[in-house]
Predict the 3D structure of the following.
Amino acid sequence: MSERKLTMSVNVIGWAVGLAVMCATPPAHAQPPTPAATDVAKDEGIPVQNDLVRAKCGSCHRSDDKGRMSRVSYRRATPENWERTIKRMVTLNHAILEPADARSILKYLADHQGLAPDEARPIAFEAEHRMIEYSYTVDKDAADTCSSCHSMARVLSERRTKEEWELLVAMHRGYYPLIDSQPMNGGQGFRRTRPIQTEPGPDGRPPDNRHPMDKALEHLTKTLPLTTPEWSAWSAAMQAPKIVGRWAVVGSQAGKGSIFGQVTVTADPSVPDGFNTETRYTVARSGETITRTGKALVYTGYQWRGRGSSSSAAGSDPSTSSGSSRAQSRDEAAWREVLFVERDWTQMWGRWFTGAYDETGIDVKLTRLSNDPVVLGTSVASLKTGATNQAVKIFGANLPATLRPEDVGFGQGVRVSRIVNARADEIALEVDVAVGAPIGPRDVSVGGTVKAAALVVYDKIDGIRVLPQAGMARVGGNVFPKQLQQFEAVAINYGPDGKPDTADDLTLGLVAVKWSLEEYTATFGDDDIQFVGTLDANGLFTPNVDGPNPKRSGNRNNVGDVWVVAELSSADARQPDRPLRARAQLLVTVPLYMAWFESEGGK
């Protein structure tokens, strides 16, 4: 939220709010439900015991004699969903809030009416803004009805009473009256599109011809109720997180590979459950070092929401990173942090991300550090048999400063020939790999500390793979921002059995390849490759500007489908005189014209 007073603009509402009121308000002759039929009679509802929430929300949401506020007390949600509600109250319903009050209200609601860890864990990707292939298979009718406009994970981020689920549908119909007749994404929206069934189903049961919305409501009421065993247990056990200290961070960033470093977390006394962070990590493959400072809040005892700024440290070599100046500027931008704090306060995991569409990210796992030595990983993902004087760095924490070559082990056939230098967080050394060294994953040990399967030993590269196999970018730059797409090439060894796509295949890590685009022929005379954008030497695709483009036939926008092709020419390959090639599909599409609320979890 901006640092100005949040007020409602009458022009924002237009005629839709009047229709919303008409749809959500029962006609004059309708009688309100009897207390015996309401959730209050069932003694559901969570009392609101916060004076600020009562003062700012109470003019519309009345409290009963048990402290339960209408609508508010009959719902639980993630911080992101509570934030969307608060913003909607401001923009559409005359709520006037100072930003500080809005943040305090959000914190209270997320803490006292949030989701339990076991409820949020399956949908963590939603808050992480992660693009994954996800389908809700529990109930197809509910998925078709809800996911026509947003992800089903948005729905799974809520718990409500039966009446509240019904009122949510009424609100959708009021604000978005076309949803009854304009299904999207292959779904059926709120309307009935399937023919009436007269014959029993395959299981012999009579056909269910209820309206899809009624089926969805029944499913949501049963599956996502307000009161659950998970929330009852967590709300009783929840404590303020004790996470001050040093944390080891291990992560992976598309196009750059593994990162290793440390995060120091200190308390922010000005904010309940607030923390300051100092982060320093190294991109293992390039040696580039990134430092970051930031702030974070923890909601509901386990949901970390933070923001930090980062920059490349002096002395790093941008020429060896995946970094053009464009990639460098992305590293220096503000990064968002969404982490899941495990119940024992020894691990956190999630995603750091940035970009106009949150498309640039690092998958991270943080582990609390003690004074014991820890090996986090290595600068290389693989070692080739027969290699001599191979430079390797071991990243960790509390590592011994004095080492002999025999103190470091890589398993059979790999010998440490020299220790170049040793620090508490990094050991540089050289290794020799025997020609006949067994191929496969290797543990790395430093003294009495072991990192399992830290790298692999291989004899040849059998193939490469382009990741992601299907990517997406959005044109922009004139009116809307661009969405970039990073590709990377990973080398593969077929393992001891020599057969592709089997369980013993070895992933050898990122490899430097020659990148190019090829036409994905979908129509006669397809010319997408000339207009969609460019792919740089590091696999980063930058789309063209948003159109229309008068230089293109039909004055079309600069969208289309292309192949992203990687080619590896290497003496390590199976056939050195024949380069290895792999490709992935790239869809270049239009900007996201309606983003609605940009949710940030209050940070």
Q: What stands out?
A: Residues 161 and 331 are 44 Å apart (CA to CA). The first helix runs from residue 10 to 24. The first strand starts at residue 75 and ends at 77. Residues 1-41, 313-330, 599-603 have pLDDT under 50 and may be disordered.
